[in-house]
Structure formats: structure tokens, C-alpha cells
Design goal:
heterodimer; A: 173 residues; mainly alpha; 7 helices; elongated; B: 286 residues; alpha+beta; 14-stranded mixed sheet; three-stranded mixed sheet; 20 strands
């Protein structure tokens, strides 16, 4: 029986820089989807990479993305629960409506209003998947890889998110 | 069927809403990297790790030392109360017990050990009112007095050690452990190193009268009375003669020391000369 031997290495500054470039935005977005707080998301992403640098001597390169998401998630849970902040997710998103016609702008504003509070009240795990798909345009496979779930589970969460929106919209009417 | 349509409509609506949407960060990835990480990762690594481990070890050692230090301090920390010549004062101990201290009397105790051990070191004369509780020990070079909760008077000066028990029970022992137990209104003294058999005192007020600035002596050695006058008035009394004889006298501490001096000198055939403000000499009359 052969266990896969995963060798650990010590990160060089260059490797660290590459990992930072490849993952920082993803991590920061992920925390933002969870709390809607840009400052907190930036802090936690930064802290995750500081931790990675501290741990650089025993790093499994194949597991790095999962490790970063896990560290960020733990940091977030530890800090967020101390400082219940209000979520302002949609408010903090910049929408691209430069070349909208007045009518388009109107319908956009209506859409935004319609979904704003619903997305903020959406359960955390659904919102993360939903926003990763909608804002970053990620495939389910990519989302699954980031947050360490199976593709099936991501599909299910996305379905739940849409279902949640549907039932909430119905009950509002 | 309608459910499916709703879902589809929501999916396309939200897709439309978020198309081209972006989170507007105050700082982008690159500036964060340059501010926080660029210098960090270019530092020589062994130095960083070594420092951290050293700091940890140092702080563990430091906190340990601090604890030992606080413990030692609490153990060794003592309070000394001194009642100077010409003075009386009352010292209060942590449990509310009090000691009325006659002139030139010293009392030392350990506040942080008090809960475990009620122990005072004592020299001079004092009247103790001890609150009920654990064993209470008064240690002097001449002897040791142990009580539980009573009132008693100790006179521990030079070669003399006298204890009078006013209430409760008092155990008086010499440094080698021989002891007597006093009942109320009994007194003992350590003479020739051994505590004497308890003696009943018919007029206990005489022993405690110093508390009211009244001094009563019944066949007391002349030198002892002279020493007491020195302490009460904060003066020094010298003599070229050997002061001998015993005296029965009582006096109240009055502003006039010379009145007192003549009262004690005359009957024994002595007189006094004022040498300076705080110095008297006693001369044997021929």
C-alpha cells in the first residue's frame, strides 16, 4: 500500500509572492461575501498571509489554497463573533452602469432594491457560493476548489440560494 | 413548473444585476503587498525565528521570576511600629487586635503572613488586646507569649520579661521552651532564664496604670524607675554613682520632670543636677 508522499517545503520569498498574487483577492472576496465589511475582509486576508509566512517552513504546496481559505475562515469566525457588524454587502459593491440608458438605470435600481436586503439576510454559506458565482463569474468547480467542498455541494447551495430568494420574494408580495 | 420558471427568472435577474459588478476596495492587492509583506519576507529568516523563540523563553523566565519575586516579597514584607521615647501609641494589627505601646517600644509583624500565622516580634512594654482566632504569638529575645484571644500586658526590656494576664489564658515560655500558663489576674516573670510560678495580682490596675500615664512602683529597683522616667520624658539620666536600693513610689506623668525626679531621689538619699535641657545627673548625697 502506498501512501502518497506529500513533501513539505520551505517557502522562498518569491514563492510567497506568487502565492499572494494568486490568492489574495480570492480570500479577501470570500471574507467580504461572508460579512460585507471591506475593512475587516482586508484585515483578515492580510492576517492569513502573515500566518502563512510564519508557517512557511512546513508547507505542502499542493494544499496551499485550502490552507489559506481555512485560516481566513478561522480568523473571521474568531473576530467576527466579537464585533457583530452590520452587513452592507450590496452597498459596498460597485455596479457597472456607466452606459445605461435612463430606463435601464431605473430598472437596475429597482432590481438592486429588490435583492439588496435579501442577499444580506441570506444564510452565510449560500451567500458565499451565490456571490462567487455572480460577482466573480466562477464555475461550480472553481468555487468547490476554493472553499473545499464537492461540486455537488456547491450546486446544492446555489440551488438553495435561488430557492431562498424565490420564497422570500413570494412572501414579500 | 411555475417554480422552475421563478428560479430561472431570479437567476437571470441576479445575473443581470451583478454583471460587471465589482467590490470597490480602498487598496489593491499590490499596494497591500508592498506595505505589509515586501520588507517582511526579505528579512533574513533565522533572525526572525530566533528572536521569537528567545522572546518566548525570556518572557516565561521573566514571569516565573516575577512570581517568585512577588512571593518572596510577600513573605519577607514586614511592618514595624515604633513608639519613641516620651510617647504612647496604639498599633492595630490586620485582624483588629490592638497593642497599646508604652514609650520606646518596638513591634514588628508580617502583614502577608498574618492569615497563616499571627506572630509579632516585640520589645518594650505593651498592653495587648487580641481578637479571638488562631494562635497569637509574641516573640521577644527574653521569652515568648502565646495566646488565643485575650488581653495581657508584656514588659520586655533589657534583662526583664514580665507578663500579666488580664483576661483569658496566656502561655509564657522561655527561649528553650519551659513555660507557665497564666489565668486572669496572674503574672509571671522570666528571672534567671526560667518563667516563675504564676502569682496572683490583687491590684491589677497597678500594672496597667502606665496606659493612663500613672506609674506605680512597689519595692522596685531604683534603676528601673530611673529608666522609665528617661523613656517617658525623652531625657537621659546619668550618674557617676551606682544607683542602688528599691523604691515604692507612684507618680503621674506631669509636665514637670524635675518634680518627679526629686520625688524619687529624696527618699533614697540622692539628688539631681540639671546638666542641659535633656540631660540630668543623679548624685549620691554625702
Amino acid at each position: 500500500m502506498l501512501l502518497p508522499l506529500i513533501s513539505t517545503t520551505t517557502l522562498t520569498p518569491e514563492e510567497f509572492k506568487n502565492i499572494f498574487d494568486a490568492n489574495f483577492d480570492e480570500i479577501r472576496n470570500y471574507i467580504f461575501y461572508r460579512c460585507g465589511d471591506k475593512e475587516l475582509a482586508t484585515d483578515i486576508a492580510q492576517e492569513s498571509f502573515l500566518k502563512l509566512w510564519e508557517k512557511r517552513e512546513k508547507i505542502k504546496l499542493t494544499h496551499i489554497k485550502g490552507l489559506l481559505f481555512k485560516m481566513a475562515s478561522e480568523l473571521f469566525i474568531n473576530q467576527y463573533h466579537h464585533q457583530k457588524r452590520t452587513r452592507k454587502i450590496v452597498e459596498n459593491i460597485g455596479f457597472d452602469h456607466q452606459d445605461y440608458s435612463p430606463e435601464e438605470l431605473l430598472s437596475f435600481e429597482q432590481l438592486k432594491e429588490k435583492y439588496e436586503s435579501l442577499i444580506e439576510k441570506m444564510p452565510d454559506n449560500q451567500r458565499v457560493v451565490f456571490l462567487m458565482s455572480r460577482i466573480e463569474g466562477l464555475q461550480y468547480r472553481e468555487i468547490a476548489e476554493r472553499i473545499g467542498l464537492s461540486v455537488k455541494a456547491v450546486e446544492k447551495r446555489m440551488g438553495n440560494a435561488l430557492n431562498y430568494l424565490r420564497t422570500s420574494l413570494i412572501s414579500e408580495n | 413548473m411555475e417554480h422552475q420558471n421563478n428560479i430561472k427568472q431570479i437567476a437571470s435577474e441576479t445575473e443581470k444585476l451583478f454583471s460587471g459588478a465589482k467590490i470597490e476596495w480602498d487598496k489593491d492587492k499590490d499596494s497591500i503587498f508592498n506595505e505589509t509583506f515586501a520588507t517582511l519576507i526579505s528579512e533574513p529568516e533565522t533572525k526572525v525565528v530566533g528572536l521569537r523563540q528567545n522572546m518566548l523563553r525570556l518572557s516565561i523566565a521573566a514571569s516565573f521570576l516575577l512570581l517568585v519575586g512577588i512571593g518572596t516579597f510577600a513573605f519577607l514584607f514586614s511592618k514595624t511600629v515604633y513608639s519613641p521615647v516620651g510617647n504612647h501609641l496604639t498599633a492595630e494589627l490586620p485582624d483588629g487586635s490592638t497593642v497599646e505601646m508604652n514609650a520606646q517600644t518596638t513591634l514588628k509583624y508580617y502583614p502577608y503572613r498574618w492569615y497563616f500565622q499571627r506572630n509579632v516580634e516585640f520589645s518594650g512594654e505593651g498592653y495587648f488586646s487580641v481578637e479571638e482566632g488562631k494562635k497569637f504569638t509574641v516573640t521577644s529575645t527574653q521569652g515568648k507569649t502565646t495566646v488565643l484571644g485575650t488581653t495581657f500586658n508584656i514588659f520586655a526590656r533589657d534583662d526583664s520579661y514580665r507578663v500579666f494576664c488580664k483576661t483569658g489564658k496566656v502561655k509564657v515560655s522561655n527561649p528553650s521552651g519551659e513555660f507557665v500558663i497564666l489565668a486572669p489576674n496572674q503574672k509571671t516573670m522570666i528571672s534567671a532564664g526560667v518563667p516563675s510560678e504564676p502569682v496572683f495580682v490583687s491590684e491589677p490596675e497597678n500594672i496597667l496604670s502606665w496606659r493612663n500615664n500613672i506609674f506605680l512602683y512597689n519595692a522596685a529597683p531604683f534603676t528601673e524607675v530611673v529608666r522609665e522616667i528617661e523613656r517617658q520624658y525623652g531625657i537621659s539620666i546619668t550618674s557617676e554613682n551606682k544607683l542602688s536600693g528599691t523604691i515604692s513610689v507612684n507618680f503621674q506623668k506631669s509636665p514637670n520632670v524635675e518634680k518627679v525626679l526629686s520625688m524619687v531621689c529624696k527618699p533614697l538619699g540622692y539628688s539631681y543636677v540639671k546638666k542641659s535641657d535633656k540631660h540630668y545627673e543623679i548624685i549620691k548625697n554625702n
